[in-house]
Amino acid sequence: MNLIFRLIWMWIAAHFGPRRAIDGENHLFFRCMPWDLDLNMHMTNSRYHSFMDLSRVDFMMRTGAWKSLRKEGLGPVLGSSTIRFRRPIRPFQKFDVTVRMLTWDERWIYLEQRILAGGDVASIAIMKTTFVGKQGRVPTEKLMTIMGYTGAKPIAPDLITRQNALDELLKA
Description:
Elements: H1 4-16, E1 25-31, H2 45-63, H3 65-71, E2 75-85, E3 94-104, E4 109-117, E5 120-133, E6 136-137, H4 140-146, H5 158-170
Antiparallel strand pairs: 1-3, 2-5, 3-4, 4-5, 5-6
Helix pairs in contact: 1-2
């Protein structure tokens, strides 16, 4: 992992920080360091995904879902991600990585992730994720039960239908 020290810091902070609701929004704050930059002197594209990875793990830990899912022997799998870059993140600029669950279907949980810098959206992404165990993929209704979510399933925004259409076009 190219962000090992940030991972360790996040892991400690998630254990001792405030709890989050699974249907809420999680925030994780960072600063763009020189080793996060590309030749154009702004945060390199691959770092956006890496910070989003950390944010998803932090979200799962703070909601208590991580412990429950790991207890069942389940691990996360990212099926797809669609990202839109809107603004550069400059050296030493602070930024906020958010994650929230949009909805789910029988196979996937859909998350929205944003990176905010200087009050503006620097990037927005839709992540399609699930969890697998020794028997393979776990149905999302069972995942919701394991994670302790008892609320209603959110209505899927049109964006999810379009995301799935794009994913179908990208299948090889």
